[in-house]
Amino acid sequence: NWSWRPSPERGPITKKATICTLCEGGCGIRARLVNGNRAVLLEGNPEHPINRGGICPLAASGLQFLYAPYRITQPIKQTQKRGEASGFKPIPWDEAMSELLDKLVNLRTGGTPHAVACITGQGQGSMRDLWQQFFDAYGSPNFFQMPSHSDSLKLAAFLTLGKEEPLAFALEKASYILSFGSDLIGGWGSPGRMLALWGDWNAAQSENKTPSAKIIQIESRCSMSAAKADRWIPIIPGSEAALALGIAHVMVKENLYDTSYVATNVFGFEDWTDSQGKARQGFKSFLLASENSLEEASRRTGLEPAKIVELAKDFATQPNAVAVWGKSRDLPEKVHHELAFLALNVLKGNLKSQGMISLAPSVPLGPMPQVLADEVAQQGLARKSLDQVKAQDIPLSRKSLYGFLKNLSEAPSYPIEVLMIHEANPAYSLPGNQVFQKAIQKVGWVVSFSSYMDETSLQADIILPNHTAFERYDDVIGVPGLPQAYYAVAAPILPPQWNTRHSGDVLLQMSKNMGGSVADALPWKSYDAFLQDRVKGLAASGRGAVAQTSARQLQETPEGASPKANYKDGADLWKKLASGQCWYDAPQNPLQLVQSPSGKIELAFQSLQSKELEAGKDEQCLPNFSSIALSGNEKEYPLTLVSYQALFLSHGYLPNPPFMTKTLWDFILRNDDSFVELHPETARSLGLDEGNRAVLKTPAGECIVRVHLFPGARLDVIYMPQGLGHKAYDQYIQSKGANPNELLEVQMDPVSGLGTAWAARAQLRRA
Amino acid sequence: MSEEERKQSAVRFGMVIDLDKCSGCMACSVACQAENNISFRPDETNKLRSITWMEVFYLQNGKDYGEYQYTYLPRPCMHCDAPHHAPCTFVCPVNATTRNEENGIVEHIYPRCIGCRYCIVACPYHARDFNWWDPSWPKSMESMLNPEVSTRMRGVVEKCTFCHHRLLNARAKAYLEETDPDKATYLPACAEACPTKAISFGNLNDPESEVAALIKDPRAFRLLSKLHTEPKVYYLSKHDWVRKQADKGF
């Protein structure tokens, strides 16, 4: 009939279950296939215990990445100046690989393996571990990951408990949740888990069955979580930690904290004496000091004192109350602020057996072979990684991508000859992405492993395209925020559609050809074989079980009640995992894991030594609040720009797919202009009205936006969503709106050296 | 068909959307697009020209900062059950859109549609969209098209079908399994996708069904009920300010 209209080919329809790896949430999905070779729909797997059948908009659009027109279908090489889109020419795989191999071998021969660096966007999977193994064997310390909230969360756990592991929250049994700016239904933790839970909480409300959780949302903008919460507490942006300390102050002053818990399990609540016999301030007297008075908390947060007292009383008296925090899964926060939120939970006695907060258990996967670094590798690894070169004054300096890019862009103490970028798009998604643009100019040769022609791939000298998430084996180690141990394998739903290769296979092939200690450290034939090896190790541990149904068995497994292994051996476990099921194990008792210097939960951190501390500033080793000092002149930039994320707008490595762009409100995107949200009064004072075009300027940059009047915006604050303003991809994605990452100010956390970024001073004037 | 002639079948499919559970993630709308081969263009920001079966409305309580609240309201076709006709079926000059009295689903038959758009004017819920252009997809994404739903052509109207192709599958399965096809139930793509389980679907005439129980909830309401269109889509909200807007028009 209508020849100009596509008629999809018919055929038998089958379903294949797998795990979604578009984010770290660990959801189970099923693909609907036609003739076994064409995927037409992704749906939630009703038998998977994390998302229980639901699916987020990104996964529901997932096939648009598989079939994206902007995919890189074969290896390509830049033949002109770097950044020239038309300069890319196809090159056979063998040639591309040997070019990379030659460079890597030459750098080792020249004794400069540390001149190789990598940035990966894979935070949690085995691919990250494989890269680490490669860098350890090859001999470079310059292996970096894209920033994550868990970077700073782990440090808070390290200072408080002595274990550098991410914290987990037993929200399934919460009755009262104080959310300090965490958009619980907007992508916090695992979206699949949080949304299923949100449905439960509200179902319980209507059916009057089980007690439902009461949610108190604390943040400056009326996010969806705030609008739907039982209560929204609007505060000055960035003052969440000050409110946590204010609540802690009231709890201590009015004796509302768990006194027996604190007396038995906590160090540093009372004043203490250090190893040199010097008297030190404890958390209690710090909270009761005048700089942490109720009035001070009120001034910092913009909340009336009575409201803070009321929140403290509610939080203290509810049986299963928990405070959660973290604005975004992909942004670290100030370590001192992390500690303030954690301290509030410590006062409530939440870190205990069957408590609300624990440490995410590790997954006993098969170990990596020990790396026997040869002489060249040892020399390379002896060098400081480029981010650490100027990091002497940072007490808990951790791998910092910002630090790396900043040092590289200024005057690096040694050059980076080869930079490999794997499943990351820092040129777009890194706040303050200008630093990446500057840094990459200093790099000799840039390799991208992306499957997409994104902003970062455009800057590459050569692209060795990976398979997409649905064409390859991958795994998920742990779910962010989940107290139970979790492991799942994502099996491909279709064979590769193009001439792409798994980056893991490329890495293994490269190692094999290098020979020697590098080949010995990465002995697997293929990435699949490597994963199977790890799963064999998991099976050999005899721990945990495969979750059988969507029954809440995984999330209701109590601590200490490890499920009985229901798999025969490694091969059997692999078979089950590759068919879309997941492995789980019971949560842990945080009190049994404490390894801090005092052997207790610390509220005065003995592991934190710094110059300021030596100078007698005791508050440096206590949870404390410092408001961000944004750069720029207040007169020139009278407003504050705050960026936010939403589940309906993809903002990370993956661009917003057309399906999702279609659902965007016309007050988020209109033609090629994106909107900022302003309180109607703020807009009026600037002479702006709904839909007006305006120039938004911060010390970092400027762009054109339109104005949307939003009564959920705080006075004098501009809110801007993450996820628009791409310059790459295709006509469905590029040149739509503005990217706040070009406007935000990145600050180095003085404790960790990690970059924190969510705001900037700004001005807005009519365009 | 007069009111007396119309026989109520035992099956009336309906939907209940719990706005207290809805998190505004838009997964329903995305799943609908994927399931029903809804085409998209590089710029979809003119909402009067954009084809969206599961459209989402924005409701707010009219208050200022601190007390401001809003909710998203997903709006499929209401599959109006008014005795005589649905507003759209009443005006269609060519019987392109009719209500299937076996199950209550309001259907639209594209090859019959002459594109007069009377139904678009008649629908008080703005649930119908017109194909101003030939549908198109990026070539590589044509592989994603669902063979169970026909693609449309320029010049016809389209709208939510409650995924009735899924009903046909469920009935065919019932035949094969020798169970009663009239008892066959299914989930439309939006209800299946919803990550908070805010969307329930089933036979409103079956007292055992979840939807039959939910519409008795004191929070239940329908859109523009004053028009007596008898929508088979119900909403739940604990907020007065949401329920009050239901009769205001959109």
Explain how this protein is built.
- The complex is a heterodimer of chains A (767) and B (250).
- With 767 residues, chain A is α/β, with parallel strands linked by helices.
- Chain A is built from 24 helices and 33 strands.
- In chain A, the strands form nine sheets. Chain A has a seven-stranded mixed sheet, covered by helices on one side. In chain A, strands 26-27-29-28-33-25-30 form a seven-stranded mixed sheet. In chain A, strands 11-10-9-15 form a four-stranded parallel sheet.
- In chain A, helix 8 crosses helix 12 (305-317) and helix 15 (401-409) packs across helix 17 (434-441).
- The model of chain A has no long low-confidence stretch (mean pLDDT 94).
- With 250 residues, chain B is an alpha+beta fold.
- Chain B has one domain (13-245): Alpha-Beta Plaits (2-Layer Sandwich).
- Chain B has helices at residues 27-35, 87-91, 118-122, 164-176, 189-193, 210-214, 240-245, and strands at residues 13-18, 55-60, 70-75, 97-99, 106-108, 128-130, 157-159, 199-203, 220-221, 233-236.
- In chain B, the strands form four sheets. Chain B has a four-stranded mixed sheet. A two-stranded antiparallel ribbon of chain B has the order 2-3. In chain B, strands 4-5 form a two-stranded antiparallel sheet.
- Chain B is globular and about 50 Å long.
- Chain B starts with 12 loop residues before the first strand and ends in a 5-residue tail after the last helix.
- Classes of the chains: A alpha/beta (767), B alpha+beta (250).
- Chains A and B meet through strand 3, helix 6, helix 7, helix 23 and strand 26 of A and helix 1, strand 2, strand 3 and helix 5 of B.
- Chain B: It comes from Desulforhabdus amnigena.
- Chain B: GO terms for molecular function: 4 iron, 4 sulfur cluster binding; metal ion binding.
- Chain B: InterPro entries: 4Fe4S_Fe-S-bd, 4Fe4S_Fe_S_CS, ET_IronSulfur_Cluster-Binding, Menaquinone_reductase_QrcC.
- Chain B: Residues 13-43, 104-133, 175-204 form the 4Fe-4S ferredoxin-type domain.
